[in-house]
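Session log. Operator J.P. requested a structure for one protein chain; no other inputs attached. Running the standard single-chain path with token output.
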Amino acid sequence: MSTDVDTGTDDLLARVDGHLGVITFNRPDRRNALSNPMYGGFERALPVLANDPEVRVLVVTGADGAFCAGGDVKGMNESHRSGTPRAGRGGGLEDQVANLRRSQRAVSLALHEFPKPVIAVLPGAAAGAGLSIALAADLRIAAERALIVTAFANVGASGDFGGSWFLTQLVGTAKAKELYFTSPRLTAREAADLGIVNQVLADEDFEQQALAWCRNLAENAPIALRLMKENLNRAVTADLATALDAEAPNMIRSMSTADHREAAAAFVEKRRPVFLGE
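Structure written below.
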């Protein structure tokens, strides 16, 4: 049974579907390009999904065969031609910088720090800031038809929503610079070979296959998954001693749960464990 979560906008949809929270970019006429209301939608929906004990995994995807085309270039062009500031981009330079910083934190930082695994499900193109947001997820599942492109060089922009940081973590500095400077259109398989995409699934029944993969992940022990994500996020910037010291209480905490006891019993009894998040 699926239950809708109010985002305050039709540009971004959210629902709870079993143990999955699902957020969907929903501007198919613009290939799900970003809009100002989307950022408020993330601010509204993410805390609800984070605090819902039934939600164990968050899925971020896009409607009608695309993930997210990034910034609305058509809207940018219309704004430049008319001389009218785009929604959420009015005011002076300092106001524009402050607005973008808030939007980036509401989406990319919030997804990176979300206390449960976040899976970006890419039914089609992820470009520009759309790719940046996909990279903010913990894992990415793409359809065979999906295209991956940094895109910023193509529109004379430097990049936002953390793509430069996330991509550098995944592929290294030199490769990230190449992908930003030259902006090649990567197939899903090429992106997987680089470590940008974790799973590539057939186009046919892609959504069902991807959600099934995410539901299977959601069958794991949710407390352990949350603590794993904490450890792995910390590992990006922490030294070894700090990482070791932080792993210890998380390990003791996870091994004191009912889920750990259930896993041990299931192992001995040669059955699949049933985790309750306790």
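Operator note: The chain has a mean pLDDT of 94.
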